Amino acid sequence: MAQQVLIDKDGTPCPWCLQVMDREDPKRMPTKDHLHPRSRARHVRNSHRTLVVCSECNFLKADMTLREYVVSLDAKNKALEQFIQLNKERIENIAYLLKIGIEE
Ligand SMILES: [Zn+2]
Fold first, then answer.
1. Which parts of 1-104 are beta strand (E)?
2. How much distance in Å is there from the Cα of 36 to the middle of ligand 1?
3. Ligand 1 centroid to residue 100 C-alpha, Å
4. pLDDT tens digit sequence for 45-61
5. Minimal CA–CA distance to 6: which of 54, 37, 52, 56?
6. Would you say 2 and 27 are in contact if contact means Cβ atoms under 8 Å apart?
7. 40: pLDDT confidence band, cut at 50, 70 and 90?
8. Closest to 55 in 3D by CA, of 8, 99, 19
9. What is the pTM of this model?
10. How far lies 98's CA from each of 35, 48, 85, 86, 93, in Å?
């Protein structure tokens, strides 16, 4: 029965990353995520609730709650935005140095 749920989700988008789930692809395989991690489920109502998500999203969420996962993803976005901004400045600075002939 539980396996049938996973088979039925094959070919549908993962609700988190929207990539199509594919049982033949190790990263996109449909998996059951326990919305509240089983390892931390004591004293939590409805801790048995699951959602079918791709294996990569399930792996990245690990034992975080959904709220912790969102905070984690947001922190990663901020770090990436800072990295992109720094790289833009590097590119502009190097382009300027190349423009004034510093390389030759
Ligand atoms: Zn996903």
1. 30-34, 50-54
2. 17
3. 47
4. 666 788 999 999 999 99
5. 52
6. no
7. confident
8. 19
9. 0.75
10. 52, 60, 20, 18, 9
